Structures are given as C-alpha cells and as structure tokens.
C-alpha cells in the first residue's frame, strides 16, 4: 500500500499526505510547500509516507 501512496504523492503530493495522516498539520504544510514549489511538496510527501512506523 505504501508504494501506491508514494506514486500518488509524486503525482499529487497533498493527496498522498492526506491518505497518510488526514487533515492534520502535515497536510497543510504540504499544501503550502506544493504551492511554493512542486518538488518540495513531493519531498515532504514522500518523507511523511516513509517515516511511518511499521505495524
């Protein structure tokens, strides 16, 4: 499932973050980063998805 989220994060970074954490602070930070530059939004989204602790 993480692979799908990372693919979504590359295409549309805020959606990838939303799928991972919902409408929290990281979602809004990612919206801002994506507006300021597409690449920072992607980096942040992939970081948020990859940092999750395995269950």
From TrEMBL:
Matches recorded under PROSITE patterns: UPF0057
Compartments in which it is found: Membrane
Segments traversing the membrane: 27-50
Keyword field: Membrane, Plasmid, Transmembrane, Transmembrane helix
Gene Ontology CC entries for this record: membrane
One Pfam family from the record: Pmp3
Primary location: membrane
Family per similarity comment: Belongs to the UPF0057 (PMP3) family.
Protein name: Stress induced hydrophobic peptide
Species assigned in the record: Dinoroseobacter shibae (strain DSM 16493 / NCIMB 14021 / DFL 12)
């Amino acid at each position: 499932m993480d692979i799908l989220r990372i693919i979504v994060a590359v295409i549309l970074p805020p959606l990838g973050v939303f799928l991972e954490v919902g409408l929290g602070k990281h979602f809004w930070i990612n919206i801002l980063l994506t507006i300021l530059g597409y690449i920072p939004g992607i980096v942040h989204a992939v970081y948020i998805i990859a940092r999750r602790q395995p269950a």
